[in-house]
Amino acid sequence: MSLHPQCAAIVEAAATAGGSPLEQDDHRLAREAYAASTAAYRHETGDLHTVEDRTIPGPDGNEIPVRIYTPHSVLPAMGVALFFHGGGWVIGSLETHDHMCRYLAHGAGCIVVSVDYRLAPEHKFPAGLDDCIAATRWAAENAESLGGDPARLAVVGDSAGGNLAASVALALRDSDRKIALSLQVLIYPAVDFTAENQSKQENGDGYLLTRQSTETFADLYLPDRAARTDPRASPQLAKYHIDLPRTWIQTAEYDPLRDEGRAYAETLAKAGVAVEYKCYAGMVHGFARMGGMVDEALVALEHAAKALKSAFEG
């Protein structure tokens, strides 16, 4: 279908303002603009029991800020979902995705731990990934103290966060200290820094996330171009994809990353992974964060929440 009118209005407003936050050349200005856009994109999320900010130990002697969302529940222990925010590994924060996490915690009836991993260019690959792995291990070890069940864990991420979620799932599978995940939710993920495909050609300009901005983010996160073939950076390039958790992948029709998500779904399915894939017609990259302006965002989040609820109940 054609670009959805609600997305078209956002694209037009961004063009009038001189470009979307994702098109800023200076990453510091991009962070400010991305954070400022959050107010317009916020939506109703439902009531929660508690929302707690704290820090947990990082892998390099650092402290990782996290925000823990706990819904009202009569269950003795809930599933725990680790959430990794998008933003090209360079921008984004606990605040920019707060409303998404609240929605998922309420809708899925699970604890959500949002991870404020280290960002590039101050902290290049694999610092952010190492933080996400450490946070997932911490959640597994401390789930009971949070009111969660260590046997019911999931990873969730949008865009760059989807990349991190996929990489965490691979890292946990390959580690001697294995942690079983019930589900990975990958929302318009970037999973292959080497990809050349139709969606990059069709949607590489004019839809908020441009091909040029993806290259800019990649250069900041992975200045060593050889590292782009590292499976920890490009999960699609892993030697094998068997024994990965059940997977739910969402993409957007007018997104340069659309075909990466679809290709990863196909790769997982061929490896025997239980995977569900949906492309949301008329949507642009980042739409799931835009529930205050885009109705389909809440549909996509509801689908993700149902996938989490189903995996945890199963």
Describe the model.
With 314 residues, this protein is α/β, with parallel strands linked by helices. Helices cover 39% and strands 20% of the residues. It contains nine helices and eight strands. The protein has helices at 5-16, 27-41, 98-108, 127-146, 160-174, 198-203, 211-221, 258-270, 295-313; strands at 50-57, 63-70, 78-84, 111-115, 148-158, 183-187, 247-254, 275-284. The chain has an eight-stranded mixed sheet with strand order 1-2-4-3-5-6-7-8, with helices on both faces. The relative contact order is 0.16. The mean pLDDT is 96.
Core attributes:
single chain, 314 residues, alpha/beta, 8-stranded mixed beta sheet, 9 helices, 8 strands, 20% strand
How is the secondary structure organized here?
Layout (H helix, E strand, L loop, with lengths): L4 H12 L10 H15 L8 E8 L5 E8 L7 E7 L13 H11 L2 E5 L11 H20 L1 E11 L1 H15 L8 E5 L10 H6 L7 H11 L25 E8 L3 H13 L4 E10 L10 H19 L1
Parallel strand pairs: 3-4, 3-5, 5-6, 6-7, 7-8
Antiparallel strand pairs: 1-2, 2-4
Cα-atom radius of gyration:
18 Å
State the end-to-end distance. 35 Å
**Biggest sheet: strand arrangement:** 1-2-4-3-5-6-7-8
Report the portion of residues in β strands. 15-25%
Q: Regions with pLDDT < 50 over 5+ consecutive residues? A: none
> What is the structural class?
alpha/beta
| Assembly annotation | single chain
The biggest beta sheet, please?
8 strands, mixed
Mean pLDDT: 96
Q: Rough shape?
A: globular
Q: What's the count of strands?
A: 8
